[in-house]
Amino acid sequence: MTRASDRAQKLGRLREIVAARAARGLLLTSAESLAWLFDGARVSVPLGGPAVLAASVDAGGSIVVHAPANEADRLRDEELGGEVEIRTLPWFEPLPDAADGWLAEADIAAELRAARASLLPAELDRYRALGAEVAALTTAVLASTGPEHTERGVAAELAARLIAAGAEPVVLLVAGEARAGVPHPLPTSARLGARAMAVVGARRDGLIVNLTRWVGAEAPDRAGEAALREVEADAFAATVPGRSLHDVLGDIARSYARHGFGADAWLRHHQGGPTGYLGRDPKATPASADRVVAGQAFAWNPWVPGFKLEDTVVVHADRMELLTADPRWPVVEVQGRPRPRTLGYGEEPS
């Protein structure tokens, strides 16, 4: 296994956390932090399950991996890369807790989020490749659907394409015409009908992209769809390095009201937030104190009954980069930015 690595820079960020806390080291135990440190390693066995290893990082930046004996060879040969010391334990024993003078993840959750936030060059390369591929396979699946297809059938085809691409389905939601107002439409046996939505969250190399697409007839309320696009554009404009997440969310909430949805419309569904090694890292709330940083990924998902928008972007110091774009998907321009429109049944992507 060979992956381009930013591990030296990541260890530098971890050493800063240890030094700031005057600790001997820290113990990483979460899937998101371990996948981040080890360049996108697959650190869980059940999809979405807990990590099967822990990693100690001391004040000097040395790493020791703790893993059950039955996982150690696979991790060494296929996932972790480089010369990493692995200390094994019997499969029936728990992974170690943080030793005295060492920091556990619960002690430093905010610092670790900040360490993960600004993506490094190798991470960005992997993320761009994933975003483009997931967008393209979503186009391929949805372009071949019709009103007679079922929600579960579409979800199954998306899942098959994602796994074939080396990605893991993290979220697969499909809503046919009858369920367009459901915020999180887990697939059912219902037929798509005149209009349908698909929501895809996919993980590869530890990183998660998120997107939403619509197929079929145009929305019955075109004005409402256009207004929600303005809310999304305002969310993009508000996401500026240095701003706090609660301030960005406040701008989004006011945008709903300004575009005719009512002052409480933003309360009916979460609005998304930073993404990367978690689907939302963290989900933006009125209490979120984290600040936007350059190089950070976001997936905002403005929603009102019958409409939803979502893509994965990276916020740079001077621009916003769209990761989940497929040039074949039809678009409309919103505040100078191309945004996906509904793809009609039978319409050939360009």
CATH-defined superfamily of the largest domain: Creatinase/methionine aminopeptidase superfamily
Summed over residues and divided by their number, the pLDDT gives a mean of: 96
* CATH domain class of the largest domain: Alpha Beta
Structural class: alpha+beta
CATH-level-2 architecture of the largest domain: Alpha-Beta Complex
Summarize the helix and strand pattern as letters. Answer: HEHEEHEEHHHEEEHHEEEEEEEE
Main β sheet profile? 5 strands, mixed
| CATH topology-level name of the largest domain | Creatine Amidinohydrolase
Produce a short descriptive summary.
With 350 residues, this protein is α+β, with helices and mostly antiparallel strands.
Task: Show the helix and strand layout.
Blueprint: H1 7-20, E1 25-28, H2 31-37, E2 54-58, E3 63-68, H3 69-80, E4 85-89, E5 102-104, H4 109-117, H5 121-143, H6 151-164, E6 168-175, E7 195-204, E8 207-216, H7 222-238, H8 245-258, E9 272-275, E10 296-300, E11 303-304, E12 307-308, E13 313-315, E14 320-322, E15 331-334, E16 337-340
Helix pairs in contact: 1-4, 5-6, 7-8
